[in-house]
Amino acid sequence: MWQIRPFQEQDQPALLQLFERVFGRALSSEAYRWKLRSHGLPVENVYVAVDGDRPIFHYAGIPIQYEIAGEVRLGMVSVDTMASPDYRRQGLLTTVGKYTYDRWREQGVDFVIGLPNEQWGSRATALGWQPLFPLAWYSFPLRPSQIMGRKMPLAAKFRIADQLWRMRWWRNVSTAITPQTELLTDSLRIVNEALIAPQHNSTWFNWRYLQCPTPYQLLTAENGIIAYRIESTAQNHTGIIAECSGEHRPALLQLALQKMYAAGAVSATTQAVVGSDFARELTKIGFRRRPHSFGVQIVPLSDDLPALHERQNPQNWDFCGGDFDII
257 CB contacts (<8 Å, ≥6 apart)? Predict the structure, then answer.
């Protein structure tokens, strides 16, 4: 009979094997430790179900401090829920999930936030998940002829289309913006007036973007920041924008697009909450929403969080794709 307990160091090799078996791709030991074992907050964030010494289920979260109505609260971003195919239909998700939420509540976690997929089914409701709003993908063509060329070979000959499109979106940037190539040592902190917002400061930016196994480039302005990287495949290069927050977002986006273009990127992609100010800014610049989106959901663990209708209003939140683990 399986049992539930906190993560132990000897679990990691078996969990990496379980990850590859469940998700069909490898996860390095370095990436696992960066993601789940380097947060520095006094809360146990990983629980496993074991059969003997063998981990058969993994439930984890990334602890993040939020400001809610001016108070610092602790949230947990649910990530990497996985069950051994040999133990499915044994109630692991419901049982381990409830156990984990109870332990997190005891440790002062106020809510769990995440992107449960359709495979959770009715178990998401049973665990207390409440839908908030969609987190959608938005894309921007940097070299339209190359995108079209994959569908229509003749389109690749019309490079002038790229030049005309570049003339339309390329703008000079007058805002003072600084590239950050070293770990941030100052007290950089993005201040905003949203009702609910994660605390993004130097410690966060260093961990999330500069110490990430796939590091990002950072550009900063006064009370503003953008994090991006280039993802390369055999077919093309794509610019990935994980975060653009604070003030001067149009200028930061413009300069990041120019740098991605200079690096050879064919397109840029990012995520935004549908209905948010950031989504509208993206659309105004020329980004277009793609069909696929994730459903952001929340499990309240505290009784004094904002009311459900306030939580479901995207204008009351300030977060980005980088607050999750899918970008």
Answer: 140, 142, 169, 239, 268
Predicted TM-score (pTM) above 0.90:
yes
Cα dist. 306→9, 87, 303, 316 in Å?
Answer: 37, 38, 9, 10
First to last CA, the chain: 37
pLDDT at 166: 83
pLDDT digits (tens, 9 = 90+) for 226-273: 999 999 887 789 999 999 998 899 999 999 999 999 999 999 999 999
Total domain count, the chain = 2
Return all residues near 181 (Cβ < 8 A) that are at least 6 apart.
none
154 and 285 share a domain?
A: yes
Q: Which amino acid is at 131?
A: P
- Residue 71's domain comprises 3-128
| Cβ atoms of residues 212 and 322 within 8 Å | no
Tokens of 288: 């277009």
Q: CB under 8 Å, gap of 24 or more: what pairs does 147-153 form?
A: 147/266, 147/267, 150/235
pLDDT, one tens digit per residue, over 53-63 is: 999 999 999 99
State which amino acid sits at residue 173.
V
